Amino acid sequence: MTETQLKGIIFNIQRFAIHDGPGIRTTVFFKGCPLNCWWCHNPESHKTLPEKIEGCNLRRGFDQSFSMEKDEIGKEFSVDELMNEIAKDKIFFEESDGGVTFSGGEPLMQPEFLIELLKECNSNGVHSAVDTSGYADSAIIDHVSPYSDLFLFDLKLMNDDDHQKYTGVSNQVILRNLNELDQLGKKIVIRIPIVPGLTDTDENLRAIRGFISYLKNLVEVNLLPYHRAGEGKYIKYGKENKMNETKSPDAKSLEDIKQLFSGLKCRVKIGG
Amino acid sequence: MNERIKKLRELSLGTEETISIERARLLTEFYTSGEIEKCSVPVARAKAFKYILENKELYLGEDELIVGERGPSPKATPTYPELCTHSLEDFTMLNDREKISFKVDEETKNYQADKVIPFWNGRSIRDRIFNEMDDQWKESYSAGVFTEFMEQRAPGHTVLDDKIYKMGMKDSKEKIKESLNSLDYYNDPKTFDKREELKAMDIAADALIAFAKRYSDKLIEAAQQENNQTRKDELETMAGICERVPINAPKTFWEALQYYWFVHLGVITELNTWDSFNPGRLDQHFYPFYKSDIESGLLDKEGAKILLQAFWVKFSNQLAPPKVGVTSKESNTYTDFCLINLGGVNEEGEDAVNELTYLILDVIEEMRLLQPSSMVQISKKNPNDLVSRALEIIKTGYGQPSLFNTDAIIQEMLRQGKSIVDARNGGASGCVETGAFGKESYILTGYFNLTKILEITLNNGSDPQTGKQIGIQTGDPKSFQSFDELIEAYKKQINYFVDIKIKGNVIIERLYAEYLPAPFMSLLIDDCISKGMDYNNGGARYNTSYIQGVGIGTTTDSLTAIKYNVFDKNKFSMEEFLNALNKNFEGFENIRDLLLNETPKYGNDNDYADEILKQIFEIYFSAIDGRPNTKGGHFRINLLPTTSHVYFGSVTGATSDGRLSGVPLSEGISPVQGADVNGPTAVLKSAAKIDHLRTGGTLLNQKFSPQIFEGEDSITKIVALIRAYFKMNGHHIQFNVVDAETLREAQKHPENYRDLIVRVAGYSDYFVDLTPELQEEIIRRTEHMN
């Protein structure tokens, strides 16, 4: 089987992921991302190829092939290898209406590999979700969408200048792809990173609300509060952290934002 | 919580732990009175019990609603010199020790020296046991191969069913009479023994009736002197209750609580039974009373809650009897393992959850006491609401209620030959032990150090800590050509030490049967009355003896490390390995690094390690399960440690999983602390590879950071996590919801963390009351975050 010979580069597999879609999930992190968001908490995901990081070998573990502390980031996997890992938690998926989430990085950057995985999930009865920035060629969206049960779609900034400044790319492709997915009838969860001072402005949030209120297949909105958990990684990997002292949004402002979105005909949730 | 309950609770928590000489004095008075020479052993025991209850001081606290204390006042803890005669040095040690201390005053010491020690020395069961055991047993015991539960505490390990709510003591006396009348003097050679036992039970029933009558009189007197009309009415009501129960079956919720409490005091006064006796399925037994009192308007929900809270305080007032020697190491806590069961199924196998279940959960949450401890039985028939409600309490970080799989518990009992109805009416008690409530004596006989035996195997039968040859010679491991040879040797050593343990056990069982029958307990457990046999002599319908395996995680990882590095990957030789262990890895840091970081470990859903876990389980199971005890029952296994994993670790040298000498072993069936790196689902998958249904209980603790419980759907997802584990036949799971940072702070500033409660093993305890070793062990457990 040529398909199963396909390899993908993965930098982490997290079992018992409970903030990446419905139920208990296994989240597979694809390496490589076309965006470069200031607030990214997985800076090690940016580059496409595996990379060696010196001097960060703090704690290894036989079974933790992807430990953040491990010196090699990213590893090649075949479809079968990954499916074996995913299948291990099937009983938990069944019990919780969970499944697998392909995240990253940007899973759409390895489309053939992703499609094969999604097909395997379908034939094994594993619910699948693709967690995406939406930044991809529209042909890829068309190819991938039939096989994924759910899209977790990030919306960050509606002003394109801001979007370019803080993520490195224009949001035009992203918004077009979001409409495209909706046209195709795919279930969509919109995920908005709430980054104080950047994405949490009233103007931005109202613009997002305006845009998504037209979506026919919107099932949920997740407000993802910025957190500083990724801070250590910037230091460790010697990458520049532009967020400085930005703090997590407080509970009150999150509630206010939730209130802002309450008019939508779908569930609005703080957290994933 | 209202003011009255707050005061009662604070009094319980704030009272200092003391030793009371009262019980020892009354017992010694009776035993030196010349009475015992005139009667049989069971009758003498019953008369002594009656003498204590007729003469002990009656405590009546301000604002109390349920009356009766085991000692003269809350937390005044009696001693049981017929089991363990404390020396004056013991008393000094108990008084002075840093953790789990008991204050002993001069009067107590003097009485102990003048009267108790001279009479009981050599007569106590502890003295008898150590005199009876052979050298092999003594060597194994002092090496820390196993512990002995009964060396200073009596067999208990049982829980009540619903019989006392249907029968008064006068009905029990009637049953005794019937049993006496049906004795067959012509064909049954045991008739005399049975007659004496039944006479003893009858005296024990009278003793409890007399005790309640004394309380009734005291309450009437108190009411007469009371000026506050509300309290006066209350005291009169309570006097009436103590007049009606336990002689009659209870008719109201309050009567049922007071009746149970008298029975509880009876059991823990008669002997210092292990695992404080408890009412078991509280929400089931009390629901009919609750319902009828609410319907009749006698009680409202709030009133029922206050009575339950007052009941909770009574448990909190009774501490585990003072422990010394190895027993204090294996069970180093004030907690006495009284475990209230909620939820589960009724005897038809249907969902048994009712309104009272949730009310009791409210009580548990508000009271936040260590005793009684509590658990929720979760069957596939029970609603998710029940699990969610339990998790809402667990997430506050108090280790209660613990979560049990009813469907597994039932299957465990069926496998052991119990009837389906008895199994459905049962549950778990102590830490995690499966039992047929009201019908079974399920004795835990001692912890068994699975890791120490591997150490002995690797040294060809000798204990490297002492150089003594305490095991059999199973070959020099350096000569082993395959992993199977090592497993074979380990198996022989396990069988050898299990034999030693069982030989000791059968002798100890007979010592209790002969010298320390428990006629009062026998009134309560079927079928002691109809058989005319004592609880300690096979009177119960089911009689199970457990030997509790400890360190299965450490042992699995150690054997896995040898298979992987020596036989499969040839990374180093057995000789190098043994040298590294002998040197506690000093100078072998590279080997230790490979062991810790590049060797498969149990708890990661990795079959390489988990297959070895299954092998160890089979070896241990086959060595024990199904062997006969002396009470018509069988030996069985379960896997739990209380605090023995710390003690066993302290007597076990470095192990081949990279563990250093003296460090605690893994706890229950939990993975080695820090070895599980793939998250909770992987731990549960690994743990479920053990065949829980062939045990009488397994214990799995997971440490979750409090953040896991945040977020709107988190509880629902954790409910699913538990359901999946139970679907795989997992027996029990509990969560420690506290982060390592908080625990570190508590170590540095104990004064600010006096109320910090953590899950230790099958029980919770105040973190500041734990030994430093145990505190460290809990901190080292893997914390699952998200």
Describe the structure.
The complex is a heterodimer of chains A (272) and B (786). Chain A is α/β, with parallel strands linked by helices. Chain A contains ten helices and eleven strands. Chain A has helices spanning 2-5, 79-87, 90-96, 111-124, 138-144, 160-167, 172-183, 202-212, 231-236, 251-260; strands at residues 7-17, 25-30, 51-52, 72-73, 75-78, 99-104, 127-132, 150-154, 188-194, 218-225, 267-270. Residues 56-60 and 64-69 of chain A have low confidence and may be disordered. In chain B, the strands form six sheets. Chain B has a six-stranded mixed β-sheet with strand order 3-4-5-14-13-17. A three-stranded parallel β-sheet of chain B has the order 8-11-12. Chain B has a two-stranded parallel sheet with strand order 1-2.
Average of per-residue pLDDT values of chain A = 90
Largest interface pair: A-B, 28 and 32 residues
The DSSP helix count of chain A reads 10
Share of β-strand residues of chain B:
5-15%
Low-pLDDT segments of chain B: none
Number of domains of chain A: 1
Instruction: Tell me the Rg of chain A in angstroms.
Output: 18 Å
How would you name the CATH homologous superfamily of chain A?
Answer: Aldolase class I
β-sheet strand percentage of chain A: 15-25%
SS content category of chain A: alpha/beta
Highest-level CATH class of chain A: Alpha Beta
Question: What's the arrangement of secondary structure elements?
Answer:
The complex is a heterodimer of chains A (272) and B (786).
Chain A: H1 2-5, E1 7-17, E2 25-30, E3 51-52, E4 72-73, E5 75-78, H2 79-87, H3 90-96, E6 99-104, H4 111-124, E7 127-132, H5 138-144, E8 150-154, H6 160-167, H7 172-183, E9 188-194, H8 202-212, E10 218-225, H9 231-236, H10 251-260, E11 267-270
Parallel strand pairs in A: 2-6, 6-7, 7-8, 8-9, 9-10, 10-11
Antiparallel strand pairs in A: 1-2, 1-5, 3-4
Chain B: H1 3-14, E1 18-20, H2 22-31, H3 41-55, E2 76-78, H4 88-96, H5 106-120, H6 125-132, H7 135-143, H8 169-181, H9 191-225, H10 229-244, H11 253-270, H12 282-285, H13 287-296, H14 301-316, H15 325-330, E3 339-343, H16 355-367, E4 373-378, H17 384-394, E5 402-405, H18 406-415, H19 420-424, E6 427-429, E7 433-435, E8 440-449, H20 450-458, E9 462-463, E10 468-469, H21 483-515, H22 519-524, H23 528-531, E11 542-550, H24 552-568, H25 574-582, H26 589-597, H27 607-624, E12 634-638, H28 644-650, H29 680-687, E13 701-704, H30 714-727, E14 732-737, H31 740-748, E15 757-759, E16 764-766, H32 772-780, E17 783-784
Parallel strand pairs in B: 1-2, 3-4, 4-5, 8-11, 11-12, 13-14, 13-17
Antiparallel strand pairs in B: 5-14, 6-7, 9-10, 15-16
Helix pairs in contact in B: 1-14, 2-3, 3-9, 6-21, 8-9, 9-10, 11-14, 14-16, 16-17, 17-30, 20-21, 21-27, 24-27, 31-32
